[in-house]
Design goal:
Chain lengths: ~160, ~450
C-alpha cells in the first residue's frame, strides 16, 4: 500500500505528460521515425554523413553529430542522456543492456567473444585492475555499479 | 506489496497481448551459453564450473493500432556442476519488460512496466511508468516514477540501501539546431537505516546543455547538485571539434565531489570514501579516418585526486578489409600512476596495456582472435603481467541460427592459470504475423 501510495505522484505526472502529448499531436510536431528505413551493416562504425547532411527531424541536431566515430563511441553517454530516442531508431534497449544493466551474468566481452570489435568494458583480468582503476576514478565505477549491478562488488566489499 | 505490484504490472502487460496481436511483428533474440571454466588459484585446489545460461529478448511491435509494442529481456542460469558464483545453483534476472505506446507526432511515448530511464542526470531502473513529449515552441517534458528496482542486499543488512520508490523527470528547451538546455531531477524515497554502513538518500538536481555555435563545434555536458548534502555532485563536459569530415578532436572535463556524487553509494559511503575528496580528470582525443574502414585514434587523460595524480595515454587503430567482413584492431595505452593508486604495497600502479583482435564474418562461418595483456611496472602479487587470449569459431546453420564456441587461456595475479571455454547457440529472427518469417 505504501508503494502504491508513493506511485501516485508518478502516475499523475505521467498522466499529465500523456495529456500534453495528446495535445501536441494536434500541433503536428515532427517526430523521429520508429526505425531506420534501411538496415545498417553489422560491425560498421556507422557514418551518418554518408547519406545525411541535414538535421534529424525531431531532434533538430545535425545527424552527422551522431556518426559512430571512436570519439562518439567513447563518449556516447552524453548523447544517450538527452537523445536516447534517436538511439532507439536503430538500437533495441537490449543493445544498451548488454553492458548497462541491473544484474549482469557474465562479462559482456565473454558473452560476445565472437565480436572483439565491439567496445566492451573490463576485458581481460579486470579483477586485478579494478584495484587500481577504482582508486583512480571511483565515479566511473559508480555510474554502473553504484545503484545497480553490484552483486559482485558486495561479495568482497563488506 | 512491491512484489505484488510488479506481478500486477506484468500481468496487465501480458493480458493485453492476445486480443491485439493480430498484426504484430515479433522479434526474438535468444542466446544459450554452456560454459566450462577451470581456475587454478595459488595455494588452493583447482575449481571447475559448468553453468548454463539462457538470455532471451522479445520485441513485439505493431500491436493494437500499430503504435503499441511490448519489450522484454532477461536471463536465467543453472549450474550443471559446482556452484559457479553465489550460494544458489539457479539464478536469473528480469532486465526489463514494458509496454510502450508511441504517438505519431512530437516524439511522444508512454512506457509501463520495468524500464530503464536516461533523462539528463537521471539514470535509473524502475518498476513503474515513464512518459515524454515534445511541446510547441521548442519545449519538451518527460517524467518517470515507480518502485525502485532493488539489488542484492548489502552484507549483514536486509536492504541494498535504496529507498522503495523513485520519481524524476526532465524539462528541455531547444532553439533551432543550435541550443538545447535541460533541467532534470531525481527524488528517491527515504533510504532505509543500515546497521553496518553509512547511508544516504538519492536526491539530485541537474542541468544539461548542448550547444553548437558552428557546425564544426559541439559542446555538451551536465552538472548536478545533491540536495541532501547540499553540495555540488558532478560536472561533466565534452567539446567536439570536427575541422575536417574525417577528423574529430575532443576535449573532456569531469569533476566529482565524493560527498555529493557518491553519497548514496551505501557500499562505500562509510569509511572507504573521504567526504572531502574530489576527482578531476581532463583529457582529449583525436581520431582520423584515413580511408573507409581505416581509423586511427590517440587519447590522453590527466587524473587528479587527493591520492595523487596520474596520466593515461595511448593509440588505437582499426582496419576493415574485404567489404568489412574482415576487421582487425590494435591498441596500446600506458597508465602512469604512483603508489597512492597501487595494489597493496606495490610501489607503483603504472601499467602498459596491449590489445589486438581480428575477426572474419562470412555467410557460412565466423571466427575471431582476441588478445589482451597488462604489463605491470612493478609486480603485482609476484606476477609481472596479466594476459588472456581468446579464439572463437562459429557456423551459421541458417541466417537466423548460429552455433559457436570460444576457448580462452590466461595467466594473471588472481589466478595462476585460467582456462575457459563455452558453446553458444544464438537465434535471432523477426516474424510478421501476416507474412510469416522475415
Amino acid at each position: 500500500m505504501r508503494i502504491a501510495h508513493r506511485m501516485l505522484p508518478a502516475a499523475f505526472l505521467a498522466g499529465l505528460i500523456t495529456l500534453l502529448a495528446a495535445c501536441a499531436q494536434m500541433q503536428e510536431l515532427p517526430s523521429l521515425p520508429a526505425s531506420h528505413p534501411e538496415a545498417l551493416a553489422v560491425g560498421q562504425q556507422t557514418d551518418c554523413s554518408e547519406c545525411h547532411d541535414d538535421q534529424a527531424r525531431g531532434t533538430l541536431k545535425a545527424l552527422t553529430a551522431f556518426s559512430h566515430t571512436p570519439a562518439f563511441v567513447k563518449n556516447h553517454r552524453f548523447y544517450a542522456a538527452s537523445d536516447d530516442r534517436l538511439c532507439a531508431v536503430c538500437h533495441k534497449s537490449s543493445f544498451c543492456n548488454d553492458c548497462h544493466t541491473n544484474k549482469v551474468e557474465m562479462k559482456p566481452s565473454y558473452k560476445f567473444g565472437y565480436r572483439p570489435d565491439r567496445e566492451m568494458p573490463h576485458r581481460g583480468d579486470f579483477l586485478t585492475l579494478h584495484k587500481i582503476e577504482g582508486k583512480l576514478d571511483p565515479a566511473s565505477c559508480y555510474r554502473c555499479h553504484g545503484r545497480a549491478n553490484n552483486e559482485r562488488c558486495v561479495a568482497c566489499h563488506r | 506489496m512491491k512484489k505484488a505490484l510488479c506481478r500486477l504490472l506484468s500481468a496487465v502487460s501480458l493480458l493485453a497481448l492476445p486480443a491485439t496481436a493480430s498484426a504484430a511483428e515479433t522479434a526474438v533474440d535468444s542466446t544459450t551459453i554452456f560454459r566450462f571454466e577451470q581456475r587454478d588459484i595459488s595455494g588452493a585446489s583447482k575449481q571447475d564450473f559448468m553453468p548454463a545460461t539462457q538470455f532471451l529478448g522479445l520485441d513485439v511491435e505493431k500491436l493494437a493500432d500499430g503504435n503499441l509494442s511490448l519489450h522484454f529481456s532477461g536471463w536465467g542460469r543453472a549450474d550443471l556442476a559446482d556452484k559457479s558464483y553465489n550460494n544458489d545453483k539457479v539464478d536469473g534476472s528480469f532486465t526489463y519488460g514494458y509496454l510502450q505506446y508511441r504517438f505519431k507526432e512530437a516524439n511522444a511515448t508512454v512506457r509501463l512496466g520495468r524500464l530503464f530511464v536516461h533523462e539528463g542526470i537521471a539514470n535509473e531502473q524502475v518498476d513503474g511508468i515513464s512518459a515524454r513529449t515534445d511541446l510547441p515552441l521548442g519545449f519538451g517534458l518527460s517524467a518517470f516514477g515507480g518502485a525502485t528496482v532493488h539489488t542484492k542486499h548489502l552484507y549483514g543488512e536486509k536492504s541494498d540501501g535504496k529507498g522503495d520508490s523513485i520519481i524524476g523527470g526532465r524539462a528541455t528547451y531547444r532553439y533551432k539546431g543550435f541550443l538545447e538546455l535541460g533541467a532534470s531531477a531525481v527524488y528517491e524515497d527515504n533510504a532505509p537505516k543500515l546497521i553496518n554502513y553509512a547511508n544516504a538518500t538519492h536526491r539530485l538536481l541537474g542541468g544539461d546543455i548542448w550547444l553548437t555555435p558552428h557546425r564544426m563545434v559541439e559542446i555538451m555536458g551536465h552538472s548536478s547538485y545533491n540536495t541532501e548534502t547540499r553540495t555540488l555532485a558532478e560536472h561533466s563536459y565534452l567539446l567536439n571539434l570536427k575541422p575536417l569530415r574525417n577528423l574529430v578532436v575532443t576535449g573532456e572535463f569531469n569533476e566529482y565531489r565524493d560527498r555529493g556524487y557518491l553519497n548514496s553509494w551505501a557500499m562505500f559511503s562509510g569509511a572507504a570514501l573521504n567526504p572531502a575528496d574530489k576527482s578531476r580528470s581532463l583529457g582529449g582525443s583525436a581520431s582520423y579516418d584515413i580511408a573507409k574502414n581505416v581509423e586511427l585514434a590517440a587519447d590522453y587523460k590527466h587524473y587528479t585526486r587527493e591520492l595523487g595524480n596520474a596520466d593515461r595515454y595511448g593509440i588505437n587503430g582499426r582496419f576493415g578489409f574485404l567489404n568489412n567482413t574482415v576487421r582487425t584492431g590494435i591498441g596500446y595505452h600506458y597508465l602512469r600512476a604512483g603508489s597512492g593508486f597501487a595494489i597493496g604495497t606495490t610501489p607503483s600502479a603504472s601499467y602498459h596495456e596491449l590489445h589486438a583482435f581480428a575477426l572474419h564474418d562470412s555467410a557460412t562461418y565466423f571466427a575471431a582472435l582476441d588478445g589482451i595483456d597488462y604489463i605491470f611496472k612493478d609486480k603485482v602479487y609476484n606476477e609481472k603481467s596479466a594476459w588472456e587470449g581468446t579464439a572463437s569459431l562459429g557456423y551459421h546453420i541458417t541466417p537466423a541460427l548460429a552455433l559457436s564456441g570460444d576457448v580462452s587461456y590466461g595467466r594473471n595475479p588472481q589466478f595462476t592459470e585460467e582456462i575457459k571455454g563455452l558453446v553458444r547457440l544464438t537465434y535471432t529472427t523477426t516474424f510478421d504475423s501476416k507474412r510469416g518469417k522475415k
